[in-house]
Amino acid sequence: MVSHRLRTHAVTSTVFLALLLILVLGGVIRGGAAQATQNEETFDWRTDWAVAEGFTMEPDSSGYSLPAAIAFVPEPGPDPKDPLYFVTELRGKLKVVTNDRSVYTFAENFLKFVPEEELPAGRGQGGEAGLCLDPPHGYIFATFLYTNDNGSLRNNIVRYSTTPGTFGLGPVDHVVFTDVFKNYESGLAHHIGPCQVVGDELFVGIGEAWQPHLAQDPNAMVGKIYRMDLDGRPLPDNPFYEDDDITKARNYVWATGLRNPYSLKVIDGRVFVADNGLGTDRFVEVQAGEDYGWNGVESSIHKRADFIWAPSLGPTQLQFLPPNSTLLDGKYDGQFFVGMTGSSRPNRWPGVQNFPYDFERGMLTDVPKYFLRWRGSGEQMLVGVAFGPDGLYVVPTYANEAGDTSIYRIIPDPTNSYPYKPTQTNDPIVLIREKGCLGCHRIGSDGGFGGTAGPDLSRELLLARVQARLENEQYRQNLVALNQLEQDPYIATRLDREAVLAAKGEEAAQIWVEAQIREPLWDTRASAMPNMNISRQEAEIITEYLLRDPEESQGFTSFLPQQLRSRTSWVMFAGGLIIGAIGMFTGNWIRRRWKESHRHNV
User: Fold this and answer.
1) How is 72-122 classified by DSSP, letter by letter?
2) Mean pLDDT of 586-596
3) Distance between CA 362 and CA 578 in Å, rounded?
């Protein structure tokens, strides 16, 4: 009887706890589903994007399918139905948006390309890509990848003619530059990309189509910057020009050795490119006739780079805001803006980055920062960037959660009412990447992409190097001497030198590293390391990370996406508690059964 009661009690308790587990987990799942439903019903597109301080963002036009590039009419006509800007779609349509924000199909059905898989699959990258306008002639140039009659992939350019100056809602005629490209195979990725009209010249960026061994060969079309006239003929002053043969690649080549120069901008005759690499990207000023070294090896993408994005963010359309512009309230005059396809991986967000450039010295004067940053949860790429008459316009490729694919406009907002900002993070890894540290330095197996410009920042090597310096009497005397200088940055960093001289051991090393990160000139009269405008708080975060104990661990949930951590931790705790209770009860029941059986046997 006792055994029967125990067994009945055990079964009843076990069933009860199992049901409790099901109810709890079911409640979590239902809660998650309810939350998802609520999110769909109350979706606010602004939650997808963070915008720079002092600006707001709003949809400008919508109704696109995989948009790829944008180009504005410099002086649009005054009527509501006069064209304001054009947008390419990856699958072959060219759209025109009028002053009243009506969207029309300007042209279609010239593109013969059907991908085996659609984006976001890699095989879906091909199609209509770059776009540029020539107002004096009313020309619209669109670059594209297509499949020829033999089933091979080829690059191409179509030139539409319409009303000079103000353009129109449809083409008068068109010309396709097929013969220029017909002898050279392209690929599903790294195909023809951006274009820009400069006077009577057309510059075009062409990727290496996964043929890196041809990127440096002027006789091959891939991995190049091309330059031609507006009728598709090579220009005699091109650096490799031989004759007027339009089928000969070298007649068109302006520069070689690029991987995927999907970002191209010509400013006062100077050609700038953001070149997509494998794990890193580069920004570089491209000179006529020069080779930029891409040969299929990751390190070759860093040749002659003015800046290296590490890890890769996939630069797309590149624009420049002229000096003395009032378009963005004068806060970003003389800066480049570049779209980023980004990634679904953490800290590699799609968006728009901006950075200043010193044209006299030929160098960035600050690291790129996010002007617009993706903060949504799904797939997204930022492919188009352009300055319109009233702000910065951006082109995301994919529809948002509400199913809308829109062109957005970013304009100054004195009230600063937009709810989400691309504020600096407290994550040291993000800070190190955003500040470009891995471009010159190594941290363990990461970084060092810029060659040997900076020393290894791994903890043991860094501590040994700093402590050796601080034990050098000559170095300490130099610090004392710098304290006598009555000029900045030596006045502003005087307390840092005094603090490091008074401290000992790892405390002194910590002060030294933090001071070095904030101001590279704090302990010397000349430094190859640029000032990256890093705040004291950011320097403290990076220093703590560099000098941390490598044995420290952040625990299991640190490997999970942030939005999953709280719910996952709770589910794991609740599930573990219930399962543990079941196990404990079952164990007690088995132990009692064994004791009862043992007593009967005795």
Assistant:
1) E-SS--SSTTSEEEEEEETTS-EEEEETT--EEEEE-S------SS-TTSG
2) 58
3) 64
* Secondary structure letter of residue 415 according to DSSP: T
- Asked if 76 and 65 touch (Cβ cutoff 8 Å), the reply is no
Amino acid code (one letter) for 440 = C
CB 263 within 8 A of CB 280: no
Q: Which residues touch 592 (CB under 8 Å, ≥6 apart)?
A: 6
The angle, 0 to 180 degrees and rounded to 10, between the axes of the packed helices 536-546 and 505-518 is: 130
State the pLDDT confidence band at 588, using cuts at 50, 70 and 90: low
Q: Specify the pLDDT at position 551.
A: 57
- Phi then psi for 92, rounded to 5 degrees? 115, -5
To 10 degrees, what angle do helices 494-502 and 473-482 make? 150
Structure-token pair, residue 578: 């219930």
Segment holding 429, helix H or strand E: helix 428-434
d(CA 124, CA 187): 11
Task: Supply the DSSP symbol for 233.
Answer: P
Buried b or exposed e, range 549-578, using 16+ CB within 10 angstroms: eeeeeeeeeeeeeeeeeeeeeebeebeeeb
Residues in the chain, overall count: 602
Q: How far, in Å, are 402, 405, 506 from residue 304 at the CA level?
A: 44, 38, 37
Question: What are the φ/ψ torsions at residue 463 (nearest 5 degrees)?
Answer: -60, -45
Contacts with 200 (C-beta within 8 Å, 6 or more apart), sequence order: 229, 230
Q: Where in the chain are the domains? A: 438-546
Longest C-alpha distance within the chain, in Å?
Answer: 110
Q: How many CB atoms lie within 10 A of CB 431?
A: 22
- Written as one letter, the residue type at 574 is A
Which of 205, 317, 304 is closest to 254 using CA atoms?
205
State yes or no: cis peptide before 115, omega within 30 of 0: no
- For residue range 189-199, list pLDDT tens digits in order: 899 999 999 99
What string of H, E and C letters represents the secondary structure of 296-344? CCHHHHHCCCCEEECCCCCEEEEEEECCCCCCCCCCCCCEEEEEECCCC
Closest residue by Cα to residue 94 from 157, 181, 187, 155: 157
List the 406-412 sheet strands across, edge first: 55-62, 406-412, 392-396, 382-387
Q: What mean pLDDT is predicted for residues 369-398?
A: 94
pLDDT tens digits along 117-159: 777 777 778 889 999 999 999 999 999 999 999 999 999 999 9
Q: How many CB atoms lie within 10 A of CB 341?
A: 19
pLDDT category at 536 given cuts 50, 70, 90 is confident
**pLDDT attached to residue 573:** 47
Q: What percent of the chain is predicted at pLDDT more than 90? A: 63
